[in-house]
Amino acid sequence: MTIDRSTLRWNAWGTAGHQDQFAKADALWAFLADALKAPLPVTPAKTLAESTLASSALAFGDLAPFQDAGCDIGLTPEDRAFHARGDSYRDLLDLRAGKLDPAPDAIVYPKTAEACQRAVELADKAGLAVVPFGGGTSVVGGVTPLKGRHRGVIAIDTTRLAALLSIDRTSLRATAEAGIYGPELERRLNAEGVTLGHYPQSFEFSTLGGWVAARGAGQQSNRYGKAEDWLVAATLATPKGAWRTEDFPASSAGPRLTDLVAGSEGTLGIISEATFAIHERAAARDYRAYLFRSFEAGREAIREIIQAEIPAASLRLSDEDETHFFGALSRLTNPPKTMHKVEDAYLKLRGFGGAKCALIAGTEGDAALVAYARARIAEIARKHGGMGVGASPANRWFKGRFHGPYLRDPLLDRGVGVDTLETAASWADIPGLYAAVRGALLEATARVSPGGGQGICLAHISHSYHDGASLYFTYLWPRATGGLEAEVAQWEAIKSAASDAIAANGGTISHHHGAGTDHARWMAAEKGARSMAVLRALKAELDPNGTMNPGKLGL
Amino acid sequence: MTIDRSTLRWNAWGTAGHQDQFAKADALWAFLADALKAPLPVTPAKTLAESTLASSALAFGDLAPFQDAGCDIGLTPEDRAFHARGDSYRDLLDLRAGKLDPAPDAIVYPKTAEACQRAVELADKAGLAVVPFGGGTSVVGGVTPLKGRHRGVIAIDTTRLAALLSIDRTSLRATAEAGIYGPELERRLNAEGVTLGHYPQSFEFSTLGGWVAARGAGQQSNRYGKAEDWLVAATLATPKGAWRTEDFPASSAGPRLTDLVAGSEGTLGIISEATFAIHERAAARDYRAYLFRSFEAGREAIREIIQAEIPAASLRLSDEDETHFFGALSRLTNPPKTMHKVEDAYLKLRGFGGAKCALIAGTEGDAALVAYARARIAEIARKHGGMGVGASPANRWFKGRFHGPYLRDPLLDRGVGVDTLETAASWADIPGLYAAVRGALLEATARVSPGGGQGICLAHISHSYHDGASLYFTYLWPRATGGLEAEVAQWEAIKSAASDAIAANGGTISHHHGAGTDHARWMAAEKGARSMAVLRALKAELDPNGTMNPGKLGL
Question: Contact A515/A509 with Cβ under 8 angstroms?
Answer without folding.
Answer: yes
